[in-house]
């Protein structure tokens, strides 16, 4: 550990040990997967979970080996300037994170291909493309600090290009070894560019491809700055707070949705364009994605400041003359706009995907089934599609704001406790369901008469508690808020009620024993989705946080 | 009694028997004070005396465990909007949104205060030399303090609350802050509540002073009265003393050998016959009064 390189590696470990532990945890999980799911069919069923965990591990590695820090003198984020004063050559400074990044990524890929993927799906190309991507990714981050967040766009384009590279006809014609050599050459050149650029930054020169920065961005920035400087004042304090919330947290969900569609779902749908069932699964994934993302984003959104580890309200907000109820209303509105924009991306993707490269065979089978259930009429399908989209939007919004009362309360223990399901569900419940999928499903179908009445009563009790809490919590809320929110709740609950009614018909195919109770259960669940009580509680909890 | 009720009604801030504990530590202990309208109210005390806790109660960021806080006659906890709209606040390390640009921060802040004066804000921005397109995170400590001060002042608040605003800042920024204090009080009826370690600053601008020690008020009154009341007496003995002489009622006795300085409250203390002669007697500075009071009580 006395060597400078050892110290640098130690520094990387110290700064990112939590993320590294998570990556190691994911790798161990993948190994465990291999042990508990030895047969290929069950591994294939669990492939999606393995895929998502691998994506998480890779994103964490990219975050770790992005290896950038903020430089207050230049106001940019790039290669850590604090390292320039160390008695270490620039080559070592640059080579170490590059080599460690590539090795780490390869370990994750190896674990995934060995433990999760089926043998026929394994390919050396993924390992090569990811290694090259890591080097290019670091080069972009270190050499173009002036581009700031626009670098993400460049990185996205580079990644997309690498994914589709082998689809180009002229690349297909080349022998594999030549393509591999070319990719290796690109990585080497990228590394040399990084090395030179960091060396120049270290000697105080401002090259770092920053002639490009100066040439374009500074001018753009000055123009943008001129434009924003002359902006009219906000028309109200609510508008100002909305702007702040949107800038801080509202744009995260749409950005993630857009990125997932562009970088993951889009390429995946292209590769599976001939696979009918695959397309249906992707459609389901597209529908569920904003909700799944909202589950995670909503946790951070519920905090007083999205990006802060602190749960107390930032001082510059807390001293503003704005009522707690107004802050909740504004957060709810930001979540609504965020949801709407995310779903717009989904609609745009589906509008491109369906006519251009989707395989709709499986969808036609589903439509045929629905057509038969609903008395040979196509209209219920359209109604159900619209209601499913509305339900998806409502659920996305609910996941964004459902935890406001907990996050804004400012109690770290309660907040950590509320996050427990996010750990327990993917790590324990989901694998358990995947491992014992058939027995659980069989038991559910065979024992409907046992569990359904109990669950219906539990759901009914939940509805009673929800409305009692709602009545209790909304007592202190000013009437004009009640008048504004009531129509929203009524319309949402009505849509979900109708959808539950229609889904009851569909599910009765699988659980024919007690259609009436099943429908009641779905309606009761629908009534619980649109938040009332927790929204009513949120201002009081925020008040406790503001006035400790 | 009638006078004090009237004064409390006139007071911008009225605090009665305020106590606050953090775990086993009493941060504030039965604090009562009235901040009159107009003028500068200085709050002094050593680290951990409870100054910031007191200011946070005035802002409504802390709820009174016992006692009562009224600002402009309202409870800052139950009516925060009405109270905060009339307050400008700057803390030692202003919590500013690092990701915003200067002009964005000012545009955001402006929206909350109907009385925001854009010309005045622009004048202050130019005076402070703040680049409107600069990100807050690249500002130096002094520039951050200036930006915080600008945001606290531009809506011409009825009460300007400054919590150790100039700690660790260079003389130029400190001068700007003092000028802000003077500018605020030059507007008729406005009040400044100013806590600081730098007692010479408090002494230069304050009309009233409250001294906190271990969560309690140990000294309170107009600055002139406090200074007139406290004396610094230098005495000389014929022989060298190895320990400070015992002076009943003195706040503190410092010195070595033959010459000793006694700090005392002239209304309460008479120098006994110690066998020493008085060499010098004059008024004590606020700094000396503060040190004598705090060390005397410790």
Attribute tags:
heterodimer; A: 548 residues; mainly alpha; two-stranded antiparallel ribbon; 25 helices; 1% strand; globular; B: 298 residues; alpha/beta; Rossmann fold; 2 domains; six-stranded mixed β-sheet; three-stranded antiparallel β-sheet; 10 helices; elongated
Number of strands of chain B: 12
**How would you classify the quaternary structure?**
heterodimer
Strand content of chain B: 25-35%
Query: Helical segment tally of chain A?
Result: 25
Shape of chain A: globular
| Overall strand count of chain A | 2
Percent in helix of chain A: over 70%
Strand order of the largest sheet of chain A: 1-2
Which structural class do the helices and strands of chain A define?
mainly alpha
Cα-to-Cα separation, first versus last residue of chain B: 32 Å
CATH architecture of the largest domain in chain B: 3-Layer(aba) Sandwich
Question: Helix- and strand-based class of chain B?
Answer: alpha/beta
Global geometry of chain B: elongated
Sheet with most strands of chain B: 6 strands, mixed
CATH class of the largest domain in chain B reads Alpha Beta
Please describe what this structure looks like.
The complex is a heterodimer of chains A (548) and B (298). Chain A is mostly helical. Chain A has helices spanning 4-15, 17-36, 40-45, 47-65, 90-116, 124-143, 150-164, 169-173, 176-202, 210-229, 237-250, 252-271, 276-301, 315-318, 324-356, 361-373, 379-401, 404-407, 412-418, 420-435, 437-446, 448-473, 479-507, 515-529, 533-546; strands at 69-71, 76-78. Chain A has a domain at 1-231. Helix content of chain A is 78%, strand content 1%. Chain A is globular, with a radius of gyration of 26 Å. Helix content of chain B is 33%, strand content 32%. Chain B contains 10 helices and 12 strands. Chain B is an alpha/beta fold and 298 residues long. A 6-stranded mixed sheet of chain B has the order 5-6-7-3-8-9, with helices on both faces. In chain B, strands 2-1-4 form a 3-stranded antiparallel sheet. Chain B has a 3-stranded antiparallel sheet with strand order 11-10-12. The chains are: A mainly alpha (548), B alpha/beta (298). Chain A binds chain B through residues 70, 72-73, 75, 221-222, 225, 228-229, 231, 233-234, 236-237, 239-241, 243-244, 247-248, 314-316, 318-323, 546-548, and chain B through 59-63, 77, 80-85, 87, 89, 91, 94-97, 99, 101, 103-104, 107-113, 118, 132-135, 137-138.
């Amino acid at each position: 550990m006395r060597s400078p390189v050892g110290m640098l590696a130690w520094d990387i470990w110290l700064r990112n040990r939590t993320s590294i532990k998570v990556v190691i945890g994911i790798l161990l999980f993948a190994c465990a997967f291999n042990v508990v799911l030895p047969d290929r069919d069950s591994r294939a069923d669990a492939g999606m979970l393995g895929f998502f965990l691998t994506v998480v591990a890779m994103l964490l590695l990219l975050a770790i080996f992005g290896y950038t820090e903020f430089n207050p003198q230049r106001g940019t984020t790039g290669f850590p300037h604090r390292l320039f004063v160390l008695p270490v050559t620039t080559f070592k400074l640059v080579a170490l994170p590059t080599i460690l990044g590539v090795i780490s990524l390869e370990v994750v890929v190896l674990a995934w291909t060995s433990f999760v993927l089926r043998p026929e799906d394994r390919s050396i190309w993924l390992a090569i493309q990811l290694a090259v991507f890591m080097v290019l990714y670091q080069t972009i981050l270190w050499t173009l600090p002036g581009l700031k967040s626009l670098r993400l766009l460049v990185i996205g384009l580079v990644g997309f290009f690498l994914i589709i590279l082998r689809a180009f006809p002229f690349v297909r014609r080349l022998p594999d070894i030549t393509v591999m050599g070319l990719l290796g050459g690109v990585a080497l050149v990228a590394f040399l560019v990084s090395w030179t650029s960091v060396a120049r930054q270290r000697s105080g020169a401002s090259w770092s491809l920053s002639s490009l920065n100066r040439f374009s961005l500074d001018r753009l920035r000055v123009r943008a700055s001129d434009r924003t400087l002359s902006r009219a004042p906000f028309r109200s304090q609510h508008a100002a707070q909305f702007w702040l919330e949107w800038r801080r947290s509202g744009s995260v969900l749409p950005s993630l949705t857009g990125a997932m569609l562009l970088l993951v779902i889009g390429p995946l749908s292209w590769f599976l364009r001939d696979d009918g069932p695959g397309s249906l699964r992707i459609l389901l994934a597209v529908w569920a994605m904003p909700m799944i993302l909202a589950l995670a984003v909503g946790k951070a959104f519920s905090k007083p400041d999205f990006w802060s580890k602190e749960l107390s309200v930032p001082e510059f907000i807390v001293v503003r003359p704005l009522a707690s109820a107004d802050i909740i209303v504004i957060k709810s509105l930001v979540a609504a706009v965020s949801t709407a924009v995310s779903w717009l991306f989904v609609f745009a993707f589906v509008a491109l995907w369906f006519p251009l490269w989707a395989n709709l065979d499986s969808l036609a089978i589903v439509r045929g089934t629905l057509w038969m259930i609903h008395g040979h009429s196509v209209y219920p399908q359209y109604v159900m599609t619209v209601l499913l989209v509305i339900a998806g939007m409502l659920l996305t919004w609910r996941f964004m704001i459902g935890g406001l009362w907990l996050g804004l309360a400012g109690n770290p223990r309660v907040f950590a406790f509320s996050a427990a399901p996010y750990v327990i569900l993917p790590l324990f419940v989901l694998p358990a369901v995947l491992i014992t999928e058939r027995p659980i499903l069989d038991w559910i179908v065979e024992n409907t008469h046992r569990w359904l009445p109990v669950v219906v009563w539990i759901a009914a009790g939940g509805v009673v508690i929800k409305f009692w809490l709602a009545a209790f919590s909304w007592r202190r809320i000013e009437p004009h808020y009640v008048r504004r929110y009531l129509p929203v709740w009524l319309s949402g609950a009505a849509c979900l009620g109708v959808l539950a009614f229609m889904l009851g018909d569909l599910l009765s195919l699988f659980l024919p024993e007690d259609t009436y109770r099943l429908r009641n259960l779905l309606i009761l669940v629908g009534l619980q989705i649109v938040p009332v009580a927790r929204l009513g509680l949120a201002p009081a909890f925020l008040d406790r946080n503001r006035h400790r | 009694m009638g006078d004090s009720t009237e004064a409390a009604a006139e007071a911008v801030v009225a605090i009665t028997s305020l106590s606050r504990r953090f775990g086993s530590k009493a941060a504030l202990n039965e604090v009562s004070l009235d901040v009159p309208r107009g003028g500068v109210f200085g709050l002094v005390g050593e680290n951990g005396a409870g100054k910031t806790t007191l200011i946070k109660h005035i802002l409504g960021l802390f709820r009174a465990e016992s006692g009562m806080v009224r600002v402009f006659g309202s409870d800052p906890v139950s009516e925060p909007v009405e109270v905060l709209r009339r307050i400008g606040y700057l803390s030692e390390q202003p919590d500013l949104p690092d990701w915003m640009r200067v002009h964005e921060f000012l545009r955001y802040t402006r929206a909350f205060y109907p009385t925001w004066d854009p010309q005045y804000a622009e004048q202050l921005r130019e005076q402070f030399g703040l680049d409107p397109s600069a990100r807050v995170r690249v500002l130096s400590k002094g520039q951050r303090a200036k930006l915080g001060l600008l945001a606290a002042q531009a809506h011409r608040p009825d009460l300007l609350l400054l919590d150790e605003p100039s700690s660790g800042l260079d003389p130029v920024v400190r001068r700007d802050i003092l000028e802000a204090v003077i500018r605020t009080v030059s507007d008729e009826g406005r009040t400044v509540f100013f806590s600081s370690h730098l007692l010479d600053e408090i002494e230069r601008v304050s009309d009233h002073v409250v001294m906190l020690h271990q969560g309690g008020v140990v000294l309170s009154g107009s600055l002139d009265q406090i200074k007139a009341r406290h004396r610094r007496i230098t005495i000389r003995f014929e022989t060298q003393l190895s320990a400070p002489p015992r002076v009943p009622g003195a706040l503190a006795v410092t010195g070595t050998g033959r010459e000793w300085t006694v700090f005392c409250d002239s209304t309460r203390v008479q120098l006994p016959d110690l066998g020493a002669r008085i060499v010098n007697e004059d008024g004590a500075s606020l700094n000396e009064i503060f040190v004598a009071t705090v060390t005397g009580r410790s």
